[in-house]
Amino acid sequence: MFADLKAVATDPILGLMAAYKEDPNPNKVDLGVGVYKDEQGHTAVLNCVKQAEALRLKQEDSKTYIGMAGDINFNLHMEKLAFGSSHKALLADRLTTAHTPGGTGALRVAAEFIKRANPDATVWVTTPTWANHISLFQAAGLKVKEYAYYDYETRGLNEEAMFADLAKIPAGDVVLVHACCHNPSGMDLTFAQWQRFTELAQERGFTPLVDMAYQGFGAGLDEDAAGLRHLADAVSELILCSSCSKNFGLYRDRIGAVTIMSQNSAQAQNVKTNLLSVVRSIYSMPPAHGAIVVSHILDSTELTALWYQELAEMRNRINSYRQLIIDKLAAQGVEQDFSFITRQHGMFSFLGLTKAQIAQLKTDYSVYMVDSSRVSIAGLNHSNIDYFAAAVASVLKA
Ligand code: PLP
Ligand code: TYF
């Protein structure tokens, strides 16, 4: 039965990660996968996480099953982090959260949940979007279509085309919107654009699905959730998928959450039974470790303060490189305008290079980036930025 299987394409981002690992060039630069690296090029475990893990080891007295919704305390923390601690939907028992294996797990559970609620729903994603979005929703049997988002010409948001597309989406469909730090373009909605998005969601009646994989990596924890909160104030239903991979640096522990905001608390009860039965049919219960670590951090004022500080360090380091890239390219004699880099947010920037230039950067200089010319800025540091700028300058001149 396996003989008929045809090979399928692998994830290009993860493929790039493997190719980088194998490259023997000592000057190689990894700007591929969206993983934070410090000035030493290392993805360290956060100190707040180390301390929470020590506490966990001391306090853990059982490994019995955790239940389908996962860690209830973690779930409440995630709701407060996203919506704000006194959001009306939280106070009115309209939120249902399950902790999931990563943000990807949250999206997959959301996809199956949508399939139950409306099997005919189309999920609309931004052009472009994280490639996994498309395959995740298709895997649940949902149709996926794209709405205009990024304008490759102006290197900004394709605002009018986006709102024209959104204005045609019918009730019953789902619109996926990135909460902040858009992957891959780094172009986010302004608050005024979130307001316009919200008005359209109300008018059209489509259901927003907010993917928040980078809360705290843009402008700050509350700032990055401002659009989501505005939307949640106005619409009656939405889906939120969040991830602790980046902001807690818990990538491999696979921790995230799916939250469904219902119209009222009675519907939230029905939603809960459906959400948990989706979970049960996929993996029964989530792994506990990451949720308990995050709970320990957010239960403690001291560890929370340490987390804020470590998160700000990561955010500020990335942001400081945006201007530096522009300055270093100018110092190499590059005349093209790269000022758009400072208008983008989060881990990524779209440099706007051609596929040929990207291939040349890889083969001639061992500089690795996704072939949309998305760079994960955290891969840059003071030891490699000049090498990177010289390499980019030389392919631009070639
Ligand atoms: N959504 C977006 C936009 C992402 O970029 C990612 C990956 O980092 C995720 C969701 C899911 O991340 P993870 O499953 O590692 O938590
Ligand atoms: O886009 C990125 O680089 C991150 C990490 O299958 C990632 O979102 C990439 C691919 C993948 C899982 C995570």
From TrEMBL:
GO BP terms, alphabetized: L-phenylalanine biosynthetic process from chorismate via phenylpyruvate
Name the record gives this protein: Aminotransferase
Enzyme class: transferase
GO molecular function, one term: L-tyrosine-2-oxoglutarate transaminase activity
Aminotransferase class I/classII large domain span: 27-391
Subunit description: Homodimer.
Pfam families per record: Aminotran_1_2 (PF00155)
EC number annotated for this UniProt entry: 2.6.1.-
Organism the protein comes from: Rheinheimera salexigens
Similarity section: Belongs to the class-I pyridoxal-phosphate-dependent aminotransferase family.
Cofactor or coenzyme needed: pyridoxal 5'-phosphate
Protein keywords: Aminotransferase, Pyridoxal phosphate, Transferase
GO cellular component: cytosol
Gene3D superfamilies associated with the record: Aspartate Aminotransferase, domain 1, Type I PLP-dependent aspartate aminotransferase-like (Major domain)
Classification via InterPro entries: Aminotransferase_I/II_large, Asp_trans, NHTrfase_class1_PyrdxlP-BS, PyrdxlP-dep_Trfase, PyrdxlP-dep_Trfase_major, PyrdxlP-dep_Trfase_small
